[in-house]
Design brief:
This protein has 241 residues and is an alpha/beta fold. It has one domain. The protein has 8 helices and 7 strands, in the order H-H-E-H-H-E-H-E-H-E-E-E-E-H-H. The chain has a 5-stranded mixed beta sheet. A two-stranded antiparallel sheet has the order 4-5. Helix 3 runs antiparallel to helix 4 and helix 4 runs parallel beside helix 7. It starts with 5 loop residues before the first helix and ends with a helix.
């Protein structure tokens, strides 16, 4: 092949790899664009915080006659939920927040807002609290799962046994981390991807576990930092057009 053809061909492969990684679903640039879009939507919308109810475990204790155990489980759960509720009320300023029982999840997914029983800082149903609809994400304290985006990695070009170039992705994922964290999920309760700042570890299994108020503060700080770093202010985006 003439040497003068090598440069255009090489340039074609480099540009193709970059463009596909940036625009195709699953590419590195695609995840960043998605994260920016989700962060803008969250800023102008709301975060719906799901409170666990542990109905199955508590009812099982009652069915077996362990009434004191059931009462203890309920009291412990109520204390944790109250702490989380107050932490969001006091420390979360990035966007509007609404707290609801996990049993109303089906109404969230169906966006049946009038059917959701929102609660106040005393964990009491409050009909005056209403989310009127619009863009939203969800949040809860649960176990962090592996980020599926990390399994797909970056687009790279490799050669097969015949020396032909083919496109593939790096694989740098791993097993589920399995630790507890405050996690932001999609409007269908699907865990988000990096680079969206979607989780903060609680360290609940260790002696130096974080105060839940500090967990919420860190989440608020991370959301605000990335919103500013990506310069997602509506007026700035209009100026860039």
């Amino acid at each position: 092949m003439p040497k003068r053809l090598l440069t255009p061909i090489f340039f074609f492969f480099v540009v193709s790899a970059f463009c596909q990684g940036y625009y195709d679903p699953g590419g590195e640039g695609w995840y960043e664009n998605m994260a920016k879009q989700q962060l803008r939507q969250l800023k102008s919308g709301a975060l719906l915080i799901r409170l666990p109810e542990n109905e199955v475990a508590i009812q099982a204790a009652k069915d077996r006659g362990f009434m004191k155990r059931a009462e203890s489980m309920q009291a412990e759960l109520d204390a944790k939920n109250t702490e989380l509720m107050r932490a969001f009320e006091e420390s979360f300023t990035f966007c509007s927040g609404y707290v609801l029982p996990a049993s109303d999840t089906k109404h969230v997914i169906a966006q049946q807002w009038d059917s959701i029983q929102y609660v106040n800082k005393e964990l009491q149903e409050d009909p005056t609290i209403q989310f009127g609809g619009g863009s939203f994400l969800t949040a809860e304290i649960t176990l962090l799962r592996a980020d599926t985006a990390s399994f797909e990695g970056d687009i790279v070009w490799r050669r097969n046994e015949d020396g032909e170039l083919y496109e593939t992705r790096t694989s740098n994922g791993g097993p589920d981390p399995g630790f507890e964290a405050l996690i932001i999920k999609s409007d269908e309760l699907v865990q988000l991807h990096d680079p969206f700042p979607y989780w903060v570890r609680t360290w609940s299994s260790l002696p130096w576990k974080r105060d839940i108020n500090r967990v919420v503060e860190i989440m608020n700080e991370k959301l605000t930092m990335w919103y500013e770093r990506w310069d997602l202010h509506p007026e700035h985006l209009d100026e860039k057009k």
